[in-house]
Amino acid sequence: MDPAAARPAVVIDSGTGYTKMGFAGNVEPCFIVPSVVAVNESFLNQSKNSSKANWLAQHNAGVMADLDFFIGDEALAKSRSSSTYNLSYPIRNGQVYNWDAMERFWQQCMFNYLRCDPEDHYFLLTESPLTAPESREYTGEIMFETFNVPGLYIAVNSVLALAAGYTTSKCEMTGVVVDIGDGASHIVPVADGYVIGSSIRSIPIAGKDVTLFVHQLMKERGENVPPEDSFEVARKVKEMYCYTCSDIVKEFNKHDREPGKYLKNWKGIKPKTGAPYSCDIGYERFLGPEVFFNPEIYSSEFTTPLPTVIDRCIQSAPIDTRRALYKNIVLSGGSTMFKDFHRRLQRDLKKIVDARILASEARLGGEIKSHPVEVNVVSHPIQRFAVWFGGSVLASTPEFFAACHTKAEYDEYGASICRTNPVFKGMY
Questions:
Q1: Range of 242's domain?
Q2: Percentage, residues of the chain above pLDDT 70
């Protein structure tokens, strides 16, 4: 028995906006921090400038540069208060762009946040369903070479989001995962735990766009938010006050009839001067999340509403899985947390499906009646970190350790072993 298998595995789910990390078997992650690294630029320049003779200074500068960086909220605070730190966001649109920064990020996750020795724990990491196999090799290389981990499994985040439903119902591994994070939105159909790759849809609207849209609406209305804080304010307004409405026109009327009830007031402090300011939050409360249902109000390039994309995704899946897919549509990711989001999604999807059934019955002249299709959008309180929770559930099963790639395999075959991550070891 591997001694590391006796300890809980470490589960790290890195997204574009936030990284969730913790130990398997827990119900929620120990930390949720923004995926950002602040690197001290002054060291890098110092080591370039010093002369050849002064190699000790160069060496020390190199060592310090390796250690002098911050991640998450600390990184954001550092970059605000001092100009020597440069922010770098290692993940964009769900893909890792900057491997150096990513390695530093993981380093602090392990040593400063989770405070664990990577050599003592198996690791479960996540990736988006459209990641290239090369990226898995890089991940494997960093984990096995730099951190010397005993075992690693790289899971597709949508499968984990389905697994998060394990505890609530009987294990239902067929469903559509609607994963809307900060930087990427994917609709991924999964049948019996396997992703139906050809039917994956991704839409170019995600949490960041909702923030940008709220920001734009507040700017156009002339709210006096200090420019250096405006995105941060827009993001907080989105997280605290936005909700999904059933009909925009009715909602506009409601707001106009009783502004006192629906208008919110935001109070902040200017970061440079410390002077207090306040601004009103009005229509953007429901117009923000509306970009998923009527994208044309935000972008002229992409105009297909989310329910239509989900419907097309299911229609392109194998016919014998479709009913099961409609019945289990699982939400995951922070941008599905808007109030009544699942209700609106379910209603719009049901309309599309019912209209199709009516049209087909009309074509057949009413001779054949089909069974009504059950549409069910599942919403649960852990949506925000459903992927992490699914990882925690899976990594605490004994089968998990058997499915991991081990250090010994890596030493023998190299990074290419990380390309395939079998769901069950016996079935390649």
A1: 207-290
A2: 92
